[in-house]
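Changelog note: in this version the structure field was regenerated for every chain. One regenerated record is shown below for reference.
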Amino acid sequence: MARRTNSSPTGGSPGPRNRTPQPLPRRRRTFGDFVKAFGALVALLVLLVGVPGALVAVVGWPLPHGTPSLDWLQQEITVGTFLHVLTVLVWLAWAQFAACVLVEMKAALSGVGLPNRVPGAGPSQLLARQLVAALLLVGAAAASFAPGLSQLGQGLEGSRHGSVAAARHTPGGLLGQQQERTAADAAAAVAEQADAASRAASRPDGGASARHGDTKYYRIQPPEGRHHDSLWEIAQRHLGDGRRYKEIYELNKDRTQPDGSKLSEASLIRPGWIMEMPGDAHGGELVEMPDAKPGIPEQVQQQIHDYAKTGDHRQADGEQGGGAGRQSGRNDQVDRDTGHFRVPQQRAGGDHGQERGRASAEEASVDSHHGQGSHAASDGSGFGLPEALVGAPLLAAGLLGALGRRRRQALWQSALGAVGERRGTEPPVPTGSAADAQDALLVGADPEGVRLLDLSLRGLAAALAAESRPLPTVYAAWLGGNGDLHLQLAQPAGKPPAPWQLGQDQTFWMLARADAERYEETDTAAPYPGLVSLGTMDDSRLLLNLEAVPGIVSLSGSAADRAGVFASVAAELATNGWSDRMTITLVGFGEDLTPLAPNRLRHLDDVEALMETMEAETRQRRGALGAAGHDSVLTGRTGPAQHTRWAPHLVLLAAEPSSADALRLAELASDAARLGIGCLVGTESGELPGAAWEMEITGEGKLLAPLLGLELDAQMLPVAQQRAVVELFVEADPEGGPDGPNDSPPFLVDVSEQGRPAVYARLVGAYEIIGLETPEGERSPLLHEALALLLLHREGVHPRVLSSALWPRGVTDDVRDALVERLRGWLGDDPDGTPRLGTDATGRLTLAKSVVSDLDVLRSLYHEATQGKGVDSRVVRGRLLTDALVLVRGPLLADRPEGRYGWLTHEIIDARLPLLVADIGLALSAFHLEKGRAEKAIEALNASMNSAPTDERLWNELLRATHATGDEDEVKRLAADLVARSGARGLPPRTEALLDELLPTWRSGAAVG
C-alpha cells in the first residue's frame, strides 16, 4: 500500500512528546478480546510458572551437588544423566523466554522505542510478543495509561492532556508494526488494493455507513520509527478489513482539514488530520462527538467540532476534483508532514566574500553563486551549449571527473602496454556534439560544490559516530543559492553536532558554506550515497535520497521525458563524488550508459531478471544486518568506514511493470529503506500499485509531486546529450583501439630556424611570455591565465568555457567580452593584418599559428624525431630529442599564483606532460645505447626523471643502462632504491623480472636490507 511520510499534526515543528499518562475514553471490549487475553494469560502462567514448577517437582536439581572430579567424568552415561542434561537445556530455554516476556512487557507499557532484541531468541521473542499483545489488548494500562500509545499525535502546541485518537495501534498492533513485520505482509496488503473499490461499492450503503448519531472520529498519528499510518491500516484496525479503506476515504474526501489542506487521494494522510469513521468502527480509543469528553485538549475538540460541520458539504467540495486537492497540497508550504518537501529558508546575506581574481570594478557583477551569472546569461556568440548539462553543476562535475580519470587511465595503460614500441601520446580531441557536451560540462561543473557536499556529509557522520549517535534518516538535501546545505530529516533527531545547526524546524539540519569549508578529509563511509539531483526550486537544488524512500518512487510522463530523467539520475549516481561505491541496476534502458562507470552500472533486460536479483539482494542484506546487529544500513555506516558492506543498491526501472510485477516489486521494496535499496519506476498511467511517492515529468521540463509539495525545474539528460556524453567516454576508453591515444599532436609547429614564432610562451616551468609587453594594471593575471588556457587548447575554447574558467562563480557577458577584446588587443595582429586571436566556424576562440608555447615545440620535436625527419637520419633524431629534453624546465606553470588556474583540475595535462617527457628520455636513451654510450643514456634518463619520477619504464631502462656500464655496485644501489620506493606494494612484475635477469642476487640483498 502507498505510504506517506508524516510528522507533526499541528503547527510548528514536531517536538518532544508529552509522556505523562492520561486516561482516555475506553472503548467497548468484545468477547473475543477477553477470550484472547485469558488464553494469553493462561499460556504465560503455564510457560513462566508451570514449566519451572514442573521441572522442580519432577526432575529436581539437575546439576551436580559438588565439584566434578575426573572419576565423575569417567562414569557411564545413564538415562538419568541424559535427562539431567535435557533439563538444563529446558531451564536455559525458559530463562530466555522469561527475558523475552520482560523485554516485550517493558516496551509495550513504556511505548518508547522498539523492544530490545534478546540474543538468539527469534521465535521465543515472537511468541512472547504475541502473548503480551493479546494480554494487554483489554488491559487498562495499555488502553489508557501507556504513554507511548496515549500521547502519539501531540505536536508542539499539544497540551499536557491526552490525545484524541490515541490508539494509532493497540499494543498488539504497535508491536506488530516493528521491523519484524515481513515484506510478504506488506505485499499482501498492496495486492488487495486492486479489488478494494469494487468491494466498497458492493456495500448496501454505498460505503458510507456512518450515521450522524453515532459518528466517530480518528486523528492521524505521526510516524513511529520508519512506520507511517495509512488508511488501509486504520481500516484494518478499526473496521476489521483493510479493504474498507475506501469507506473512510469517501467519508473524508475533499473536506478541509485543520491545516487547511484536503484529502485528495486515498494514499495520502497526514498527522493531525481528522478522519470521520463508519458507524461500526471500533477499538483504538476512537473519539465520538467530542462534547464533554474528558482528557481531550480544547483546541482538538474545536478542530473535530469544526470538521464535523464540513460533512454536509463534502459533495459540493468534491466537485472540484482531485486536481484542486493536489494543488492545495503543493501550495501548503507550512505542512508539518516531513514527507511534504519544503524549500529551506535561506539565510540573509548569502555572499561568501569577494570573487577571487576580480580584476576591476567592472567585474563587480560577478554572481556569488557558482556559475549562475554565466549560466543565466545569453551566450552572445551566436550559438549555445546543451543547457541540460550547463544547468546541472553536480552532474557535470561528476561526469567531468570520471572522464578525466578515464583519460588518465587510457594514457597510462597505453604507456605500460607499449613495451619497446612507440605509443600514442595524445587523447583524441572531441568534435561536433561531443565537443559541445565537453564544453557544457566545463561550463556547468561545480567541483568545489561536490567536494564541500562530500566533506560535509562525511564530517556529519564522523561527528555522530564520536557521540555514539545513529545517522538520522534523510529524505532529501537542499543546496541553497548561498551555498548552505540543508538536510531534510524523516523525523526530528535532536540537536545536530556542531557546526551543524537546526534549520527552520526540528526536521531540518543546516550547515553554512563557511563552516563546510573548514571540514577536512576523514576516513568515514559516505553516509548518504543515494542522494541524487532532481532539479531546482526557488534557487535551491533538491537531492532526493533514493535509498531512504519507504518504498517505490514512481515517475510518470511521456517516454522521452521519463528517459531524460532516468538518464540524468543514472549518470549522476554512477559518477558522483559523495559516494564510495554502489550498484546501479538499469532495467529497460541505459545499456549505452555503462561506459560511464562499468563498475557501478549494470543493465538487465527485463523485470524477471530484476526480481531474481532483488530477492537475492534483500535476503543477503537482511542476513548481513542481523549478523552485524544493526537496525539498518545507516547504523552500519556510522563509525569506522565499511564502504563495501553497506553500499546502496539503486534500481532504475524505466518501463512500466505489469500489475503482478509491480506487486512483487512492492513486496521486495517494503523493507528497502532499511536495507539501503532504492527503486525508481516509470509508469505511463501515473498509477503504480505500492508506490510510496509519486512524481510526474511534464513536457515543459517540470518535475511535479503535488503530494510531496514539489514543483521543480527538472534535471534531465536528453537522448542527444546522453549520446554525446557516452561518446566522450567511449573515445577515452583505453581499450578503444584506434580511437584511443594517437600519435600526432593536434598542433605541430615549424621547428626549423624559419619557424620562429611571433609570440612564444614558456609553460613547462615558470610562466614566461616572449614577444609581448607585459600588460599593466590588475588585469594582467587574467590575461596571462586566459592565454595559458588557449595555448593548452589549440582546437579552440568556447567563450563560455573561458569565462567559467576565469570566474568559476559566474560573470556577465559584457565582462567576459571586454576581457576577450583586451586579450585580442594585447596579442595584436600578424604582418598580414590577421588578428592573432580569432574565432573559428563554431564560434570558439582560437590562436594563430604565430602564437606558440614551449609545450607545442616539445610535442613537435618528439613527433619529428620519431615520425618525421628523424626516422631516416640518426643525427637529426639525436639533435631533435636533445633539444626537446632541454625545454623541460619543471612542472607545468610552476609559479602559478595560489587560488588561480583552478580549471587545471579538469585537465589531464598533469598526466600527459610527464608521459611525454618520459617518452623523450626513453627515445634519447635508446639513441645513445645504440652506440654504447651508456653514460649519456643514464644522463638522459635522470633528466627525464625530474619530471616523471614514478615512471616504471624510466627505472627499468636506467637499470639496463647502468648494467651496460658494468658497475654491479651501482646496479645493486639502484635495486635497493627501487625496493625502498616500492614499499608494501612491492615491485612491479616487469621490474622484478628485469632484476632477476640483470642481478640474480637482488632478492637476498633486499631481504637483508
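Spot check on this record: The radius of gyration is 36 Å. Confidence is low (pLDDT under 50) at residues 1-27, 140-213, 313-339, 349-382.
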